Every structure is written in structure tokens, then in C-alpha cells.
Amino acid sequence: MNALLEVKDVGKRYGTVVALRDVSTVVNAGEVTCVLGDNGAGKSTLIKILAGVHQHDEGEFLVEGAPVRFASPREALDRGIATVYQDLAVVPLMSVWRNFFLGSEPTVGFGPFRALDRRKGRELTKKALAEMGIDLRDVEQPVGTLSGGERQCVAIARAIHFGAKVLILDEPTAALGVKQAGVVLKYVAQARDRGLGVVLITHNPHHAYPVADRFLLLKRGAALGSYEKTEIDLPELTRQMAGGAELEALEHELRQAEAS
């Protein structure tokens, strides 16, 4: 069976700047692929290629085994690839249910006589959130009154409701406390268990490790390593993220210099 998404030796340049080079990974249904790296590692560039914002210059990008080159995010969305960015693209003063649909609201009537079907919108939103285990007392409340974790969960439920096969989450836990981050990770696991392929972008190995099936470590636009969960434990993942291998190489060089 073909992977939902696969990139093979993908590269991206902006003029003379190499933003990404020779990066490969795979996203399977019912699994979480975690992309780890510090600022400037190339995570954003990789997301933008997967989400159809930018096109790759080198390598291959496959969706369910077929090579693609998206011209826009709409094309990616039409192929079932939904991206939830860190800023969430919500309207804080608008109700939860209006944010849930945002441009795809249910209507009643025909032609110029169409009007918003508020009751149906509220019911569908409550049902979709409840299926994810999210219990909101009032979907009429402004989305800005929700916690950061709850807003992330609404965005995840929205993507699933509108038929996403692949869910790309850009640093969903970055601005959250421990408890809220745990809530978001629970819904990431739920999306995975419902058969979606999830791409989780983060710089925190402690958030990544409990839910991920594989890890892609990026540094300065290149892959530092690619591992299945069975191949790496949390201490080693953390050490690599912290540049442990580079520090060891530096220590070795310094010792050699002292010896000579």
C-alpha cells in the first residue's frame, strides 16, 4: 500500500540560499511522523512544500504514490492535506461554530434567498467536537474565549470534519503550558487512531516522543537523522536535538589538539 505522503531527497532554494536539501520522509495512514528541529532548521520550508504554499526544486513529492507539484494550498486541501498553522487562522470575536465552518457554513433556502442555517451549524459543530472528545458548553461563545489548547483542538476537529487524510500541525504545543500541551497531544493521538496521517512539527522532543511513530530531525535545512520509534529512545532523541553528536566531535577535536 502506498504512503499517504512521501518526500524523496526534496530540496528548495530561494535564490542562492539553500533552505532544504536531500530531505526524505514518509507519512502513513494511522501514524504520526514528527519533524523536529530548532528555528532555521527547515521545518517551515518543508511544511510549505507539503501544504502547497511553495514548490520543491529538487527530489520527489508523492501523494498516495503519485508525483505531485501543488500550485496552491487549495490543491493540497483538495487532495486531503490540511494544515493547522501556529496562528490558527481563527477570528477571535466570531463564535466557535462560525470559526469551525469559516466560509463553508450550512445554509437554507435557494439563490439570493439563502441564509445561514445557524441551528444546523451549531449541531454539526457540537457533534464533530464531541466525536473528538471535546465537550464545549456553548459553541456560540467567541473562539477568543477558549484556551490555546482548546483552540488547537477545534482546528484539528475542523480539519477532520472536512475530510482531511493528512493533518499537518505546525508547533501546536509551542505556546502552551504542560497541561494544555497534554490535551492537544491527546487529540493528535485521536486523529492518528481515526486513520489520519499526521505530520507533527515541533522543537520539543518531550512532546513528540509519546505520540510519534517516526522522527525526522532537521538542522540547517538538512536531515540530521530519520528514525522509527523502535530505533531511538527519548534520551537519545533529546541528545541529538541538543547537538550532542556535534559536541562530542568538538570535544574529540579539542583533545586531539591538546595531545599534539
Automatic annotation (TrEMBL):
InterPro entries: AAA+_ATPase, ABC_carbohydrate_import_ATPase, ABC_transporter-like_ATP-bd, ABC_transporter-like_CS, P-loop_NTPase. This is Monosaccharide ABC transporter ATP-binding protein (CUT2 family). CDD domains: ABC_Carb_Monos_I (cd03216). Keywords: ATP-binding, Nucleotide-binding. PROSITE patterns: ABC_TRANSPORTER_1, ABC_TRANSPORTER_2. The lineage of its organism: Bacteria, Bacillati, Actinomycetota, Actinomycetes, Pseudonocardiales. Residues 5-245 form the ABC transporter domain. It comes from the Bacteria. The keyword Endoplasmic reticulum does not apply. GO terms for molecular function: ATP binding; ATP hydrolysis activity.
